[in-house]
Amino acid sequence: MSLTTALNIAKQSLQSTSRQTAVVSQNISNASNSDYVRRNAVVSSEAPGARVVLIQRAANEALFRANLSAVSSYEGQGTLRTSIDSLALAVNGVDNANSAATALGSLYEAIQLYSNNPANASLGENAIEAARQVVRSLNDGTAAVSAQRTNADMQISVAVGELNGLLADFQTANSAVVAGTQTGRDVSDQLDQRDALLKKIAQYVPISTITRENNDMVLTTSSGAILFETTPRTVTFEPKPGYDASTMGNAVYIDGVPLQAGTGGDTNAAGKIAAYLQLRDTVAPAVQAQLDEVARGLVMAFAETDQTGTDPDLAGLFTWSGGPTLPADGTLAPGIAGSIAVNAAMDSRQGGNPTVLRDGGANGADYVANTAGNASFSSLLIGYSSKLDETIPFDASAGVGTSASVMEYSSSIIGWLENLRQQATAAEETKGALVSRTAETLSNDTGVNMDQEMSLLIELEHSYDASARLLKAVDEMLANLISMVG
């Protein structure tokens, strides 16, 4: 081997080792970066010596796609669980203290106490106050549901705006990847940036990826709607300023295709947008319908009967926006929980008299049951208690059965929401564990292992030392040769 050849080998080895060391150093400096994929310097042997021919990125597309899917599912589940918790607290209060069932239980007790001593005006006032609490619970519950739906609508609008921003950023990152690939440059950093954006996009909607020539990527939702192909597709949504019991929310459109809301406590919503749609369009409206059914049942239970048998039953202790006419039997009356009120004829705060509850007559003389004016008259009060325990039909669309007493139904709606919350919580834990497992597996396969990198760095130091010694030896031999010639 000539000295020139030996010198070239040493020089190529030093250059190769320097390049490998730079790659290892980059890996070490990004060890804590969850969006960084480990680089490997691939070396080939060619005379005279070795040189780096390629910087490879240790990507695993299958694991990455699995992690994206897990992220979408977890984000949707977590958003739903958090929303249900907020809804339950807003409607029912801490430990259900503000629930319709709790207020109705107090009213039931107050009516029974009043029926045991109907001459006691204080007990009559207590019964009316209990009725006010029931009304407040239903009115406030309706307002809380409307606020939750309005907030979900606002969150959808915010999320859509953020998603459009991420898709614009993705276009920039994808263009950089494609341009770099076409010119043969190392695009590892750009690929990391693009993958980081994919993780963020997956938090909003479920995504599938297709990689084309020059590392160009196409994004679609799991249902096939195109999110990105060369340019981002527009995600559109028109928010509404407010919601009541009859308001229908607008859909979210991706490239003209509506995004479907999630279903169930263990929701199939992938991404936060579908979860917010589920709360706004399914969960919250169901709670509203249940409150409306309790209110309708109360109006019916406390209705006054015409003692002459001529006119129909009319609203008694509880009336509503459609009163004094009674709502249809067994049929949902949307929004009645928001308009239910204590009858002014019985409410002392509105100039009424609580004894009208005992005697009847809120709707005129024909509806007076205690025509003799007996202070001990209790038949109506006893009848009201019985009505609260009587099985009546409920609208199936509210989701809590079709027949029960008003007392049972009011308790059932707490159970319905609590059951949904428990399902959502359990599913969130399961899906969270899946995210952790897929992320850990992906990190183990593509992330930086400090022990391995430090060991490799030591090997490179030894290689560098060997090349340096070879270079020094060649230098010495050349110096001796030159001195001999001289």
From TrEMBL:
The keyword Zinc-finger does not apply. It holds the Pfam family Flg_bbr_C. Keywords: Bacterial flagellum, Cell projection, Cilium, Flagellum, Secreted. One of its GO terms (molecular function) is structural molecule activity. Its main location: other. GO terms for cellular component: bacterial-type flagellum hook; extracellular region. It is found in: Bacterial flagellum; Secreted. Transmembrane segments: none annotated. Residues 96-311 form the Flagellar hook-associated protein FlgK helical domain. The keyword Secreted applies. One of its GO terms (biological process) is bacterial-type flagellum assembly. InterPro entries: Flg_bb/hook_C_dom, FlgK, FlgK_helical. Belongs to the flagella basal body rod proteins family. This is Flagellar hook-associated protein 1.
